[in-house]
Design the sequence.
């Protein structure tokens, strides 16, 4: 359109009409005479407006996504915490079940030997009091413990109490090089002295150099005077090697202890000795030897008879 006087007058007139319509619309409110026209325009231009809105919405969506991301992160963190707590609970349950099994086994051992015991738990390991193989337990003088008491678990001999505090005690383990205990063989009643060798089998010096010992024979504690430091009948271990007899006054054998000294947890301190020596009653029952399965050998015989088997020549 050319910039003429007529066009300017037309522009001014259109502007005036627009202001008039705006004024009428504002004053009319919901009853405005132009409301119908406005709705019609909305139907026409609405899709365009929505298209433009969707074009610029990623910015707003990004802001909302940041907010939602924070909420999701919090939820994920919450779920991770719940999962960790559940695993801890399950682990705790497994731990409790393990303790129950150990305690049950120890009570059976104590019952078989008629030992009065005080249960305790290993709370520390290390070279306490200058010993190389020791543990600390959570029971002490307040629980009736005294020095030189026998310590056992469900498997057998653990060691002896060496130091006692009000609520804790130190136990010298049976595999310590400074540990010595009198032993008795199950099958032959041969006596000896077992000494610790760290992570190697116990070394046992038998008093009889000509003792008849076999691999697999088992040992128990012989017991001490007044039952200190050792009560009788506690399982010690099983023979794994026998040195050849060289005519010496003693004979050396090597014994694998029943107790795993690197995985101690629940133990029992013998606070009351048995009235009588339990002898071999505390040893576990030996598994029955499997009976050999008889085998039947079937020999196949030829189905036909040789031609000259009976001296007959068949034509």
Sequence:
């Amino acid at each position: 359109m050319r910039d003429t006087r007529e066009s300017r007058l037309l522009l001014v007139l259109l502007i005036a009409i627009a202001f008039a319509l705006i004024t009428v619309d504002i004053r009319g409110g919901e009853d405005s005479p132009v409301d119908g026209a406005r709705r019609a325009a909305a139907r026409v231009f609405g899709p365009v407006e929505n298209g433009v809105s969707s074009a610029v919405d990623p910015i707003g969506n990004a802001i909302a996504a940041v907010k939602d991301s924070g909420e999701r992160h919090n939820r994920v963190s919450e779920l991770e915490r719940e999962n960790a707590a559940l695993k801890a609970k399950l682990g705790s349950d497994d731990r409790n079940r393990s303790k129950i099994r150990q305690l049950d086994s120890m009570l059976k051992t104590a019952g078989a030997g008629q030992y009065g015991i005080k249960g305790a738990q290993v709370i520390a390991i290390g070279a306490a009091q200058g010993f190389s193989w020791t543990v600390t337990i959570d029971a002490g003088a307040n629980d009736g413990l005294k020095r030189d008491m026998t310590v056992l678990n469900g498997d057998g001999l653990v060691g002896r109490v060496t130091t006692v505090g009000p609520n804790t005690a130190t136990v010298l383990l049976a595999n310590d090089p400074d540990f010595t205990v009198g032993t008795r063989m199950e099958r032959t009643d041969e006596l000896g002295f077992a000494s610790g060798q760290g992570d190697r089998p116990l070394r046992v010096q038998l008093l009889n150099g000509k003792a008849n010992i076999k691999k697999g024979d088992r040992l128990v504690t012989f017991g001490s005077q007044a039952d200190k430091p050792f009560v009788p009948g506690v399982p010690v271990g099983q023979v794994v090697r026998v040195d050849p007899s060289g005519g010496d006054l003693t004979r050396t054998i090597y014994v694998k202890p029943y107790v795993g000294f690197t995985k101690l947890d629940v133990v029992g301190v013998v606070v009351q000795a048995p009235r009588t020596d339990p002898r071999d009653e505390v040893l576990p029952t030996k598994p029955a030897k499997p009976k050999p399965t008889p085998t039947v050998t079937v020999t196949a015989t030829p189905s036909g008879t040789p031609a000259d088997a009976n001296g007959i020549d068949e034509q």
